[in-house]
Amino acid sequence: MDISTQKPETRGFMIRSLQILENKLDLTSDLSRSLILFSFFLLSFLLKFSLIKVGSPFVTIDDITTFEGGFLVWFGQSPPQHMYLESWICGLCSLSTYVFKMVSSGNVDAISFNLVADAYRDFYGQPDEYVHNYRILVILIDMATGYLVYCVGKQVIENCWQGWAAVLICVSYLLSYNTFWCDIVARPDSFVVFFSTLGLYFYYKSVFGKRLGWFLAAAVAFGLAAGMKLHGAFFTIFIALDLFRFHGLRKGFGSIVIFVCISIFFFCFAAGSLFADPLTYIKLRMANVKDDFSPWINWGEQFIAIFNGTGWLIVPGVLGAFVFALFNWNSIDGPNEKMKSIILQSMCWLTLFASIRQLRAYWMLPALPLFYSAAVYGLSRLPRRSITATLAIFSVVILTIQSYAQVREFKSVDFGQLRSWIQDNAFEKPFYIIGFESVILPKNTICIRNRTTGIRRSMSKSLAAGLPFTLRHLKYWEERSQLVLFDMLDQRYDSGYEYYSFYRTPLDAYSDIIDIEDMHYILLQEHFPIAGQLELAVYIKKNFTEIAELTGAGGGGTGLKYKIFERIPL
Question: Any residues with CB less than 8 A from the CB of 162 and at least 6 apart, and which?
Fold first, then answer.
C-alpha cells in the first residue's frame, strides 16, 4: 500500500503505527528482551508442569523419605539424611495440602491438635496430591531462581550485547535438563541453587564485602545453601578464595573470617542434625561416601557428565573465558572484577567436579549460573559477531533438545505399572519383594505390627548383647524413625497391604514373625543376585510360576523392573 496516496489524517495515523511497531521490534529495547525472556520462562514452566504427575507417585525409591522427614521434623525426629530446613519446607507444604483438603471438603472438624499425625495418615494412604503440590512449590522456587540468575547476569556482564547476554545466561539456566530432574524428583538441589544464586546476588551487591549489610546477607544465603545439601559448602570456600583475590590476606582476613563463621552457623542451623544429633549426622555423611562408591562408573566418565550436564558448548566457553581473562587480567579490555570472580569460581567448580569419578550431572546444578555467565562472557570475546551469534543459538538449541529429551524420558516410563498391578491383584494377598522396596503403598495393620515386632526385638537383642548406648543410637537411627511413623498411625491401617522385603525384613531375622509359605506372590527385582541365594532360588522355582514383568519406581529415573511370581496352587 502506498502511504503517499492516503488522506493526510490516515497517512499520519499509519506512519505513527509503523513507528510504534518498529520500536517494539527493536531488539535493543527493554520490551523485546522482556518478551523473549517471558517466553522462555513460560516454556520452561509449562514443560516442567507437564511432569507434575509423573511417577507412582515417586520417580526414585528414596523420594518418600523427603516427605516422611517433613512429618518427623515436627517431633524432633527428622531423618539425618535430610536437612532440617528441607524437612520443614516439605512438612509445611504437606500440612497446607491436608488443611486445604479438609477445608475444601467441608471437614473442618478434622483439623485438630493431632494435625501432623492426621496429615501423615492421609498422606500414607493417598500420597499423590501431596507429591504433586510439593513439585509445584519446587517449580515455583526454580522460576524464582531463574529470575535471580538473570539479575546476577546483569550484575556481572553489565550491558553486553545491549542486555541480551544476561538474557542468554538466564535462558540457559531455564533450559537446563538438570532443573527438570531436580524439580520432579524430591531432592533439595533446587533449593540449593536458589540460596546459592541469592548469595551471589547479595555478594556482588556488597561489592566484595564493602557494603556490610549485603555482605552479611550473602553469608547467610550461602550457609543456607550448604545446609540444604552439603556440597553447597564449597560456595563458602570459593567465595573466601575470591575475597582473598580481591582484598589480599592482610586487608581481607577479617572479612573472610566473618563470612565463613556466619556461613558455618547458618549451615548448622539449616542442617539441624549438626546441632540436634551430630554423631548420627557425621555417621550418615561417612556412609554416603561409602554407599556412593558406584563401581559401575569408570574414571573418565565424569568428564562426559560435565560436558553433557552443562550443555556441551558451555565448558569450552568457560575455558575460553578463562584463557582470555588470564592473558588480559589487568588490561582495560579484560574482565571486570565481578567477571573475574565468576571465572575463578567456575574454574574451582570445574576442577572439583572433574575430580569426582561418580559425578552425577544434577550435582552441578548450583554451579550452573556461574558456568553460564562465564561461557556467555567467553562468547562475547570472540572477534566475529556472526560466530558469536551462531554459537549462542546452537547452545540454546542443544539445551532445548536436552530438556525435551528429559521430558520424553520421564513420560516414556510407566513408573506406576507395578503399583497399579498390586492394587488390582494383591490387596488381601501377602507378597515378598526380593530386592529394593520400591512399592509405595500403605502397609496394613498386620504388616505394621510384624515390622514393629522385628525392629524392637533387634533393638532388645543389641541391648542384651551389651552394645553401648551410643552405638545402638547410631545403629538404629532409621528404625527409630520408622517406629515414630508407625506410632503416628496408632500402629494400625486397615486398608493397606501386607508385604515384606529382602533388605527391610530379611527372612533369617524374621523367620518366626513372617513365613515365606504365607506369601502369595514373589516380586523379584531385575539384576538381583538371586544365584547367591541358592536355597531361596530353588524354593521359588519349585513353588512359584512367573506371570508378569512390571516397572516400579527407581532405576535412576528409568524405573526398576520386577518379575512377578505367583504361588502354584497345591
Answer: 27, 28
